[in-house]
Design goal:
Helix content is 66%, strand content 1%. By secondary structure, it is mostly helical. It folds into four domains: 207 residues, no CATH class; 189 residues, no CATH class; 89 residues; 138 residues. Strands 1-2 form a two-stranded antiparallel sheet. The chain starts with a helix and ends in a 17-residue tail after the last helix.
């Protein structure tokens, strides 16, 4: 059929609504005609009708409708670019008699002008972005593929400028017509999400980000094409079936089909680039008040998401118990899809919050004392609401998330009053008790992990009445393996409180309970690395020149005796590997499996740099004796290497180093550490009838 007749037929088809199944055929015809017509007026006419056609716009299929039209113009310009490139390099096939050349032989510049002319006043301005965005994506994509478009540089610059101007006019239009969260705002978001990467650095500053940011946030988080204000979880609990002790969520249920459809939405599937576009808008808005408004919106969304999750029975099952209480279909098919959607919301929010904090660090108005602590508190509240997602990934799963979390804490730490208020607002509702609901325990974990960073700026009363009181019930429950992450967080909080300079009285009061808890759960629920770190921290807190050492000078010796006497009777069999050891087993230098006795010996050696000189002189020989009591040669050599490292690596100050050198060189330290076990065997052979030398023991504590 001749192109003119085909155009007439297509234009008639566009005047009435057609079934969605006919849409691909119509769009394919339109794309073909755009590259076939040689009359610029016909090209403009076709473009104009595509932007106003009742067949598409009377009953649009959400953003899929503008996305399909975007693909039409992208495909058409790509075809022309390939053709002109082939002609330039003399690769174009020869035309057969009667065959119409691509675009009727129109120069690329004229063809682009004709297409853009079709975006006229008969269609809304936000629809013009579909045309301009398709052209820019096609041209930019061709350049990325290495195509030489020296003749298209001017065309691209004009298309870029036209796209930015059209976007600004469209933003004004949707604001005046209150269509920011309707199809107009969604189309603006869709096109810019795909085309923004192809805008030059000279054009991007011309965008009106003050108008763009609310449209992007509204579309991504609150529109029907985004996360729907987090209410997509609302009806899920009705579709959860209970079969004995197993919970099931059928793949054919309406709630799962809805979640599956949300993930397939164009904006959700490209949420990564969209979140970066939002973050870029945050960094470039002129009115800082818009950022504060956006933070309120994000806080509202995250709070709603956590609230909706709590209402689902799945929230009552901890991650460690899922294999026990979830049916196979829920465990392996349906819930992984839901978690994929929730992770998309978490990562998108994280990228946006990163933009907020970067802007806060460099913007005087946002860094003001009246604003900065509020923004950082809101950031931490948002991360808390999303922590039921984060806790499944691990705290270090994302460098972006770590940056946002620690930066917000660092800012808030400069405002002790606001930090105190924030921690009290997120503290466990019932201090001294372990909540039964897993979500509440996850929130307790977030509180403990966060509170650890504020102990230096909090008052003594807050440290004791809030932080210690929150950690104590989890320390007492150290034998529960399911609570291990919270137990470790509680240990970190206790160590942080005890290490705070203002906490000397608290340390003396709570130290006996903490030591009892520490020794009670090692090595079952506390790794050797964590135990050594905890004991090393306690030695630093109790040894001079700490405040506590003045009122309780015998505490270091008491702690050392506890470890020493336990080490004398500790098992010599290797401990099972912890998570870090398992992760490093395939490395070039896998860690050595140590026994409990060897770990306790290392713990004592770690403490040597913190002892006073007279205690150091007593305990260096005792550590050497304990070292020689280790039966396994590899373990003993590892402890011996650590002993030597402590003596020569500079961990001791000059006064302690002088005492260590004297013991090593003139008091038998070298022979005891390096050859003590051999001398002991030789002595047994040659002095079998002699009386044994009395073994040295630590000085008696005055406590």
């Amino acid at each position: 059929m001749p192109a003119d007749r085909l155009l007439s037929t297509l234009l008639r088809s566009l005047q009435t609504w057609t079934d969605q199944q006919d849409t691909p055929r119509i769009l394919g015809t339109a794309s073909s005609l755009l590259t076939t017509l040689g009359n610029p007026h016909n090209i403009s006419l076709l473009t104009s009708h595509l932007l106003t056609a009742p067949a598409f716009w009377d009953r649009p299929d959400g953003v899929r409708t503008p996305l399909r039209l975007l693909s039409v113009f992208h495909s058409a310009v790509t075809t022309l670019l390939n053709h002109h490139n082939d002609v330039r390099h003399r690769k174009a096939p020869k035309l057969l008699p009667g065959q119409t050349p691509i675009a009727g032989g129109l120069p690329l510049d004229d063809w682009v002008r004709a297409v853009v002319a079709g975006a006229d006043d008969r269609s809304q301005r936000w629809k013009h972005l579909v045309v301009l965005g398709g052209l820019l994506i096609g041209i930019g994509g061709a350049e990325e593929q290495g195509m030489d478009l020296y003749w298209g540089f001017t065309i691209r610059k004009r298309v870029e400028g036209a796209l930015v101007r059209a976007a600004n006019l469209a933003l004004v239009e949707v604001r005046e017509r209150s269509e920011a969260d309707g199809l107009g705002g969604q189309t603006i978001t869709l096109v810019l999400n795909h085309a923004f990467a192809y805008l030059s650095d000279g054009e991007r500053p011309q965008m009106d980000y003050d108008l763009l940011l609310p449209v992007l946030i509204g579309t991504a988080y609150f529109s029907s094409e985004g996360f729907q204000s987090a209410y997509f979880l609302g009806g899920m609990d009705l579709d959860i079936n209970v079969q004995g002790e197993k919970f099931d969520w059928n793949v054919r249920s309406s709630s799962f089909r809805q979640v599956d459809a949300i993930i397939a939405r164009p904006l959700i599937s490209s949420m990564g680039p969209l979140s970066r576009l939002i973050a870029h808008s945050v960094e470039n808005v002129r009115d800082p008040w818009l950022i504060q408004t956006m933070m309120d919106d994000l806080a509202s969304f995250s709070r709603a998401l956590m609230t909706q999750w709590r209402q689902i029975r799945f929230s009552g099952i901890s991650a460690a118990e899922e294999s026990t209480y979830l049916a196979d279909e829920a465990l392996n098919k349906t819930l992984p899809v839901l978690w994929k959607l929730l992770k998309a919301a978490l990562f998108a929010t994280t990228i946006i919050l990163r933009g907020v904090l970067i802007r806060t660090l460099g913007d005087g108005s946002l860094a003001a004392d009246a604003v900065a602590p509020v923004l950082s508190s809101q950031t931490l509240h948002i991360l808390r609401h999303l922590y039921f997602i984060t806790s499944r990934l691990g705290p270090d799963s994302s460098s972006q998330l770590t940056f946002v979390y620690l930066t917000a804490i660092d800012i808030l730490s400069n405002y002790p009053i606001h930090a105190d208020k924030f921690l009290k607002s997120v503290a466990p509702q019932q201090l001294g008790q372990i909540p039964r609901h897993p979500l509440d325990r996850i929130l307790d974990l977030y509180f403990l992990n966060t509170a650890e960073h504020f102990t230096l700026v909090l008052s003594i009363a807050t440290n004791e009445d809030l932080l210690v009181a929150s950690a104590v019930p989890y320390l007492a429950a150290g034998g529960n393996h399911n609570l291990l992450p919270i137990f470790e967080a509680a240990h970190s909080v206790m160590l942080a409180v005890l290490s705070a300079p203002q906490s000397a009285q608290i340390t003396a009061k709570h130290l006996p309970f903490y030591i009892d808890a520490l020794f009670g759960i090692f090595p079952q629920n506390l790794s050797p690395r964590q135990f050594r770190l905890a004991f090393k921290t306690l030695m630093r807190v109790t040894a001079p020149p700490s405040t506590l050492s003045a009122s309780h000078p015998d505490l270091p010796a008491t702690l050392l005796e506890l470890v020493f006497h336990r080490a004398l009777n500790a098992p010599a069999t290797p401990l099972p590997p912890d998570e870090i050891t398992l992760a490093l087993q395939g490395s070039d230098a896998p860690p050595l499996a140590l026994s409990e006795q060897a770990v306790l010996a290392l713990t004592l050696i770690d403490a040597l740099p913190f002892l006073s000189v007279h205690l150091l002189e007593d305990w260096m020989p005792l550590c050497a004796e304990l070292l020689n009591a280790i039966e396994e040669d590899p373990m003993r050599e590892a402890v011996k290497a650590r002993y030597w490292e402590v003596l020569v690596s500079g961990e001791m100050d000059p006064e302690r180093s002088e005492a260590a050198i004297a013991w090593w060189g003139t008091r038998g330290g070298r022979e005891t550490v390096l050859y003590g076990r051999e001398h002991e065997r030789d002595g047994l052979k040659t002095m079998s009838g002699a009386l044994p030398a009395p073994a040295r023991r630590p000085r008696e504590s005055k406590l």
